[in-house]
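User: Transposase, Roseovarius spongiae:
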Amino acid sequence: MNKIQSYDGRHLRDGDTLYRVIGRVHGKPAVILDLNGAQTEITLEEYHRQIGLGNVSEGQEPIFRDRVFDDQEASEAAFRKRILELVDRYQELGLTWAEIKNEMELELQKDQRFASRASKLPAVRTIQKYRSDFCAKGNLALVDKRSQSGNYTIRYDDILRDVVLDLLEESYLASDRMTMTDLAWQSRINYLKRFSEERPKQEPGNHGRKAVESILDDFIPHSDVLKKRLGRKVARKVLLQAGNFQKIEHAYDRLEVDSTQADIFVIYDGKLIRPWVTLVVDAATGSIVGLVVSLENPTGLTTATALFEAMTGNDEEFFDRFGIKNRVHFAGYPLTVVADQGSENSGEIIDRLLSTTAIELQKNIPGHPEKKPFVERAMSTLKTFVTKLEGATQTRELSFKDRYDRAISEACWTFDEFIQKVQVWRYDVYGALPRRRVQSPLKRKESPIESWRRLCTEAYVPEPPNKQTLAQMFYCQSAKRIVHNYGIEVGYVQYSSPELRMLKQNTKGKLEVDIRINPADIREIIMSHPKSGETFYVPCKDPEMPAISVAERDRIIAMNRRDSDDYLSAQEVLAALVAGKHHKPSKATSNGGKARHAAQRKRRDDEITQRSNRSRNPAAPDIASRPTMPVFAPERRNRILQRG
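Assistant: Predicted structure for Transposase:
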C-alpha cells in the first residue's frame, strides 16, 4: 500500500468529474486521487500540468479560479494575505488583538503597497473571517466579492409589470401622485390575487419593493410620475433621464431602433430557422414606423432599410399584399434616432444615411434598455404575440430550454407567413392597442394610430425627404475613376450613360470624376459632375446584370475569373450565381448551423432574383426615371427644444 507523504485535500476536475486529492505518494513522483472511495494514481508531472491549467482548486472547497483578477482585486487580495501573515506572526509572540493591530499599522506603513491603508485596518471579526475563508478556499477567498453582489436577473414577471403599470395609470389619472410604499403594498395584493387566478400551479415571482422600482425605471418616461419618494440623491438621476423624454412634442421628434431574434422557429426551404426582427418606433405616437424581418443577423443595411421605410412609408400594394385593415401611411423626417451600440447601427451605410439626411444619432450605453423605453415596450408586446404562435421557443410557462423540442415539432409557419402575421399584428393589433397615459410622452391614453392621426390634424408632422435624397443614402462607398471612351469601370464592371458620354465629348484630355457606389447593388453608380457638382445615375452597360452586392461581386471575381483583364459580364455573374460562388463560405459545424446557413443562402438568392426583376434602386423600387439632381451639404437641424 502506498504511503501518503502529506494530506492535500484539494480538488481536481476532469470535465464534469471531480476528484479529491489525497496527497503525494512517499518516495514516488505520483499523486493519489479519490473518487467516491475508489483511489487512482496520476504522475506528479500530470498533476502539476493540471494546476497550471487551473483544474486544481486553491482551497479545500471545489472552487476554481477561471478568470484573471484585475489590478484592484489583486491588490485587495495581497493586502488581506499580508494581514493574515502579520497576525500569525504576532499571535505566536503572544500579543493581544489591540497590540497586534498597533504593530500591524506600524509594519504596513513601511510597505509602499499598503501604506495608504495602514490606518484603516479591518475589524477583528473581519480578520477572523479572512482566516476561516482562507483555510477553506485558499487564495481565492481573499478576493473582494462585493462587486459581484446584486441581482442580475430580471426582477419581475409580466403579471407584476402589468399590475404596477395599471395602478400607476389609475393613480396618475386621479391625483398624479402615489408614494412608493403605497404602490408596493397595493401591487403585492393585486399581483398575488391575479397570479393565483392565471397560474394556480406555479410559485409567485418577485413582487417586493425593488421589483416595483425596477418596473418604474424601465417603463416610465415621465418625471412627475417618477417622483417616488426615493430621496433627492436617487431621484435626481431618474428625473434627468425622464426630462429628455418629456421634450418629445411632435411625431418623428425621436425614433428608437432595436433588433432581436424572434422566439419562434419558421420554415424556409424545408429548414427550421429563427428569424430576426428590426423595429423602428416613433416615441411620440408609439407607432411602429419601420419593420424588417430577415433570416440573417441584422447589419447596417437592415437598419438603413428599416429607417428608409420609416421615412417613406408603405404604399397600397403593401397593404393589399398582407391583407391589412388599418391602412395608415407613416412617413416623416426624423430629428433624432436612438439606437444601441450594436454593429448593425454603425458602418458605411449608417454613416452615409446620417451625412445625407442630417439625422442626429444617439447611441445608448450598453446594458441600459430603459434609455429607449418606447421600442423596448413594442418589442415586449411583439414577443408576447409571438409566444402564442405555433413553433414558439418559449412561453410564459416554459423557458427556451424546456420548450425547445416542442417548438421544433410544432413549427408549421413558413418565413413568408410569419412576415405576414407580424405585419398584420403591427397595424391591426398593436396599432389599435391604447398606450397607458404614464407611458406616453404626450400623456394621452390613445392607440398609436389614433395618436398619429390626431397629430397629423392638430400638430406639426415633418415632411419626409425626397426620394432622390433617400436613394443616395445607400451609395456610401466613394471612389475616383477615369472616364474612358467606353465609360467607367468599377470592379471589372463597366458603366455608361448619355450624360457620361456627353461629358466625355465636351472635355479635352484626361477626365477624372468622383463616384459613389451602393454596396448592396452593383447595377448602378452615382457620378458627380467635376465642374457643376451635379450628380446623375450611371447604369451598368450590361442590362442583364443581376442585383448582387459589392462583396458578392468581389467573391465572384476572386473565384471565377477566366481572364483577370476581362470585364465582368452578366453571363459570367449568372453562371457564378448558379454555382453558388457568390456566397460567403460557411463556418458552421453543427447540423443546425449548416441548415440555417443553407436557408440564409437560399433566401439571399431569392432576394437577388426579386430585386433584379424590379427597378434598379433597391430601396426605392417605384422610381421610374433618373433625373439629374444637385447634391448639397446637409444642413444642421434644429434641436428638439427649437423645433416647431
